[in-house]
């Protein structure tokens, strides 16, 4: 991460209140003590530390009490048999009804997510499908994006597995709220499996349906087998790496770190590729029952299919590397990607801002001591030709009760009205981080972006680690 453009003005420089410093120190000591006294590692592995040059922009380790649902700050449930106004049976012919109930979607208390198909006495199937609230996962210009999960597929095989269709995949952001523009907006299937086979399928969907440049409805796909343990009997790591540092750019799919399928931009025409990739994506986890894919391998579910076998997800994480492989180095002034993570400490100008070391995932620095009237400037943020409608910021606050404020987004001048904002108060500590979304007015083109901080009190009310935008 770059050194700050300047240092806080002596007349505005504020030191942390003693209480805030003590909170940070005590929190660090508590974490160290917990690590020192832990007798055994958790039942599930944690997401690996990002390699050098990569920044973690999303993580869910699915830690929480057994029987609890997913964190709705990160995920939303898809329920019923279709999106509102979308194709019936999720457009695939699957037969289950998706629910938000913990019998179908729940944490196991050991750091895993369970998505479990169930069948009632009447033979009706239910299951679970969740997708990230964020729709802005994409590589920065000249950089890379890696989306991965450690998953054990439903541990059922043979006739008992007929109709099972677990998946870990992504859809292009323009699909959300439209539901009629598939496959043109792009779909990246990182892991699909059917019928309990020891096979991992990876596919890119794009173009037009049926047929078209991407061979729909099959898409551009390939498959491989799990080794060591089968896909059903053990955990494996499924990943997609989208590389915009190559020419042509390419999307690679891997199993346990070994690439087995690559789709390059020059495999289709430029318009098809741009329509499928010139935007962010959101992540989906689900277990379907029945539909077109299982039908190609014998059909189901039927009376011999066993319900109750979950897909077990240890973690999902999204990593980003900037151009040249330096995930900790911000792009040069005038060439920032609005849809990649913009590190808050990489500002081009500021007032009242103090960079500091963060304990947030990925490490590095955040900006702190932010109070009423403070601001930070980020020059040359490129929003492209498709309007951004969302803003996300990674924030933390240890503000006292009754102290809160607004994080505002202004374009080109601090005197311009905000295009969007969100309120923040105490999050549990100055290093207790959460990603907060906000709607913004539509923005296209290239702009200087100001983060401004407004409060009815003079006290510090927020820290910021990074921010970005979405469609």
Distance between the termini: 26 Å
Which ranges are low-confidence, i.e. pLDDT below 50, for 5 or more consecutive residues? 1-43, 324-334
DSSP summary, beta strand count: 30
Helix content: under 10%
Silhouette: globular
Mean pLDDT across every amino acid position: 87
* Strand-pairing-aware structural class: mainly beta
Estimated share of beta-strand residues: 35-45%
What Rg do the Cα atoms give? 23 Å
Please give the count of helices: 3
Instruction: Give the biggest beta sheet.
Output: 8 strands, antiparallel
Keywords:
eight-stranded antiparallel beta sheet, seven-stranded antiparallel beta sheet, 3 helices, 7% helix, disordered N terminus
What does this structure look like?
Helices cover 7% and strands 39% of the residues. The chain has 471 residues and is mainly β. It contains three helices and 30 strands. The longest helix is centred in the N-terminal third of the chain and has 20 residues, at 18-37. The chain has helices spanning 18-37, 270-277, 292-295; strands at 55-60, 75-77, 97-98, 105-107, 113-115, 118-119, 125-127, 129-132, 144-152, 164-172, 187-192, 200-205, 220-224, 236-243, 250-255, 258-264, 281-289, 311-321, 336-337, 342-343, 349-351, 354-357, 365-370, 375-382, 388-397, 405-411, 420-424, 429-443, 446-454, 462-470. Residues 1-43 and 324-334 have low confidence and may be disordered. Strand 15 (250-255) and strand 16 form a beta hairpin. It is globular, with a radius of gyration of 23 Å. Strands 1, 4, 5, 9, 14, 15, 16 and 18 form an eight-stranded antiparallel beta sheet that branches. The chain has a seven-stranded antiparallel beta sheet with strand order 2-8-17-10-11-12-13, with no helix packed on it. Strands 19, 21, 24, 26, 27 and 29 form a six-stranded mixed beta sheet that branches.
């Amino acid at each position: 991460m770059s050194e700050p453009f300047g240092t806080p003005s002596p007349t505005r420089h504020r030191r942390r209140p003693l209480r805030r410093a003590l909170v940070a120190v005590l929190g660090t000591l508590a974490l160290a003590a917990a690590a020192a006294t832990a007798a055994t590692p958790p039942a599930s592995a944690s997401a690996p530390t990002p390699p050098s040059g990569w920044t973690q922009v999303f993580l869910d380790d699915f830690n929480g009490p057994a029987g609890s649902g997913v964190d709705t700050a990160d995920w939303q449930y898809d329920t019923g048999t279709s999106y509102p106004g979308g194709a019936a049976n999720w457009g695939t012919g699957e037969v289950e009804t998706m629910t938000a109930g913990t019998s179908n979607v729940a944490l196991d208390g050991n750091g895993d997510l369970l998505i479990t198909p169930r069948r009632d006495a009447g033979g009706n199937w239910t299951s679970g499908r969740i997708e990230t609230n964020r729709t802005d996962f994409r590589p920065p210009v000249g950089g890379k994006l890696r989306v991965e999960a450690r998953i054990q597929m439903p541990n059922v095989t043979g006739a008992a597995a007929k109709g099972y269709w677990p998946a870990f995949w992504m859809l292009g952001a323009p699909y959300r709220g439209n539901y009629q523009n598939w496959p043109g907006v792009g779909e990246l299937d990182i892991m699909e499996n059917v019928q309990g086979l020891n096979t991992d399928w990876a596919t890119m969907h794009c173009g037009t349906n049926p047929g078209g440049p991407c061979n729909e409805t099959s898409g551009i796909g390939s498959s491989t087998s799990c080794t060591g343990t089968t896909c059903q009997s053990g955990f494996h790591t499924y990943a997609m790496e989208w590389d915009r540092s190559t020419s042509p750019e390419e999307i690679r799919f891997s199993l346990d770190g070994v690439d087995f399928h690559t789709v390059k931009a020059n495999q289709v025409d430029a318009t098809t590729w741009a329509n499928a990739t010139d935007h962010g994506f959101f992540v989906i986890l689900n277990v379907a029952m029945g539909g077109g894919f299982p039908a190609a391998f014998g059909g189901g579910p039927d009376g011999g299919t066993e319900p109750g076998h979950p897909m077990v997800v240890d973690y999902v994480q999204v990593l980003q590397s900037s151009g040249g492989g330096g995930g900790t180095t911000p792009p040069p002034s005038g060439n920032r990607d609005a849809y990649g993570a913009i590190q808050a400490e990489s500002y081009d100008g500021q007032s009242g801002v103090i960079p500091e070391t963060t304990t947030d995932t990925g490490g590095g620095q955040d900006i702190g001591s932010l109070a009423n009237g403070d601001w930070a400037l980020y020059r040359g943020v490129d929003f492209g030709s498709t309007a951004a409608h969302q803003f996300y910021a990674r924030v933390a606050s240890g503000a006292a009760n009754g102290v809160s404020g607004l994080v505002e987004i202004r374009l080109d001048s601090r005197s311009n009205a905000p295009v969007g904002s969100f309120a923040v108060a105490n999050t549990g500590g100055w290093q207790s981080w959460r990603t907060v979304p906000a709607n913004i007015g539509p923005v296209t083109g290239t702009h200087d972006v100001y983060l401004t901080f407004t409060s009815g009190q003079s006290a510090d009310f927020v820290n910021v680690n990074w921010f970005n935008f979405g469609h």
